Amino acid sequence: MKRIIALIIRFVPRKYLQRVSGLGLRILGLLYSGTAVECPICEKQYRKFLPYGRINPRPNALCPNCLSLERHRLVWLYLKEKTTFFDQQLHVLHIAPEACFINRFEKLHGEQYITADIESPLAKVKMDVHHIPFQENSFDVVLCNHVLEHVRDDIKSLSEINRVLKSGGFAILQVPFFNPVSETTFEDNTITHPREREKIFGQDDHVRKYGKDYPRRIEQSGLRALEDEYVNTLTEQVRIKHGLVKGEIIFKGIKA
């Protein structure tokens, strides 16, 4: 199972998998019937989540029903318990929207919830994050998860996010990290072979490997960077129940 999933997600972009794999994974989920884990997003229970990953699939990672991964479940719980995201209608820009969130967030925020991406078939607005086509001070919240490692200029993109946020608004800015995490972010555009890029950057479509300086890169955009170790405040029982990774930091950019 791990090998099959690894091959599929290695060669088929996730944005397309999200569109076509739902029914098949739900059927597969029947084989994982149980109550040991529960996805907080769709509230479905299983004996464990599916494995997920390109080279070495992570066990207990993918929800067969809504396709959430560990990071999605963490962001959901963080928004619900540590912000007002679920308490009132907000103007939200969701960059590269994940399938597990779209319908649920649209139900919460209505027409004020805008999905955008340069190529994803799931997004309503075609948008280059380097040039966000909205006026400044337009949004209360920007969600931008596992996007910045793909873009040509992450500082420019972060500056655009800062521009369109309202004063006091915030952005959730998750990016992948690979152990051991270096002190500084690594980029090298001369590395062009897909397998070599995959080896060095984690995926062949990544253009940088983030280091411990990521919060400083966020602050170069004018946002105030907050590193929230929320997941570590949860009990081990809760982390196991929802398939969360201890130590995963929520990176939040706050506009003054």
Class of the largest domain in CATH? Alpha Beta
End-to-end Cα distance? 47 Å
Tell me the overall shape.
globular
DSSP E strands, number = 13
Helix percentage range: 25-40%
User: What is the H/E order?
Assistant: HHHEEEEHEHEEEHEEHEHEHHE
CATH topology of the largest domain: Rossmann fold
The number of helical elements comes to: 10
CATH-level-4 superfamily name of the largest domain: Vaccinia Virus protein VP39
Mean pLDDT: 91
The second-level CATH architecture of the largest domain is: 3-Layer(aba) Sandwich
**CA gyration radius, whole angstroms:** 18 Å
Notes on the protein architecture:
With 256 residues, the chain is α/β, with parallel strands linked by helices. The chain folds into two domains: 2-68, no CATH class; 71-254, 3-Layer(aba) Sandwich (Rossmann fold). Helices cover 33% and strands 20% of the residues. It has ten helices and 13 strands. The strands form four sheets. A seven-stranded mixed β-sheet has the order 7-6-5-8-9-13-12. It has a two-stranded antiparallel ribbon with strand order 1-2. α5 links the parallel β5 and β6. The radius of gyration is 18 Å and the shape is globular. 33% of the residues are buried.
Summary?
The chain is of the alpha/beta class and 256 residues long.
Can you give keywords for this protein?
2 domains; 10 helices; Rossmann fold; 256 residues; two-stranded antiparallel sheet; alpha/beta; seven-stranded mixed sheet
What's the structural blueprint in terms of helices and strands?
Elements lengths: L1 H10 L2 H7 L1 H8 L7 E2 L6 E2 L3 E3 L5 E5 L7 H13 L9 E4 L3 H11 L3 E5 L7 E2 L12 E6 L9 H11 E8 L13 E2 L6 H8 L6 E2 L4 H6 L4 E5 L1 H4 L2 H7 L7 E5 L2
Parallel strand pairs: 5-6, 5-8, 6-7, 8-9
Antiparallel strand pairs: 1-2, 3-4, 9-13, 10-11, 12-13
